From TrEMBL, chains A, B:
Organism, as annotated: Embleya scabrispora
Name recorded for this polypeptide: PadR family transcriptional regulator
Pfam family, one: PadR
Residue stretches spanning the membrane: none
SUPFAM superfamilies tied to this protein: Winged helix' DNA-binding domain
All copies of domain Transcription regulator PadR N-terminal, residue ranges: 15-87
Length: 107, 107
DNA sequence: GCACGGTACCACGCAATGCACAGTAGTGGA
DNA sequence: TCCACTACTGTGCATTGCGTGGTACCGTGC
């Protein structure tokens, strides 16, 4: 099974999850996701997802200068974003439970 | 979150899971998946997935006449299919655990 | 000074896949 | 006769993750 397909529709949730605790910029979100275990996430996927969530009105954004490189575009969850996070988490948990039962959970 | 996107790459596993226990034909697999909790699976998705798995050499197929309607095309797991099921299950479990930790498991 | 690697972001186009929709066809009941 | 249910197929679309390449800034080592 190609792990990249598993991310479909879940990367949104993953990004919201890491932003939920602390604002972050693209490159940072990428690192945090990989550290969390999503080793194969592509950078373009993360930037794309951030833009998508921003355009959907779930994130706010502000630019901060850095002395270690180019400017950083920070993203932060707003209220709709937090709500979406809660909803998506519920959807995910329910879906994951269904799938685990289907394949026969052996935990 | 659109639940349909969650199925991406997982429908294969779900179909393998229901066929693992008993051979089935498309319409039947569809009903079994919906009964298992995947309420929104489209019929075309299931037929398409069955064809894809068959073309990938993971399923065998045979036709059986029915007295309640048209002929039924049964599918069955073969050895590669069973192996794929085991691999995909591992991938899924690992992925699901990672995601659950990310969103903060509240079980 | 300059090449190089790490940081940071973006645009373009592709590929996979679930789905809607339409079509074909058999069976049986109102 | 019409309709609902069963059963399968084909076409085309939308979403979305990713590969690739490009821009640009910074510090280090030569």
């Amino acid at each position: 099974m190609d792990p990249s397909q598993l991310l479909k529709g879940v990367l949104d949730l993953a990004v919201l999850a890491v932003l939920r605790e602390e604002d972050g910029y693209g490159y940072d979100v990428l690192r945090r996701l990989r550290k969390a275990g999503l080793d194969d996430v592509g950078d373009a996927s993360v930037y794309g997802t951030l833009r998508r969530l921003y355009n959907a009105g779930l994130l706010t954004s502000y630019v901060v200068a850095s002395d270690e490189g180019p400017n950083r575009k920070y993203y932060a969850l707003n209220e709709p974003g937090r709500q979406r996070f809660r909803e998506s988490t519920d959807t995910w948990n329910s879906f994951a439970r269904t799938m685990s039962e289907l394949v026969g959970e052996t935990r």
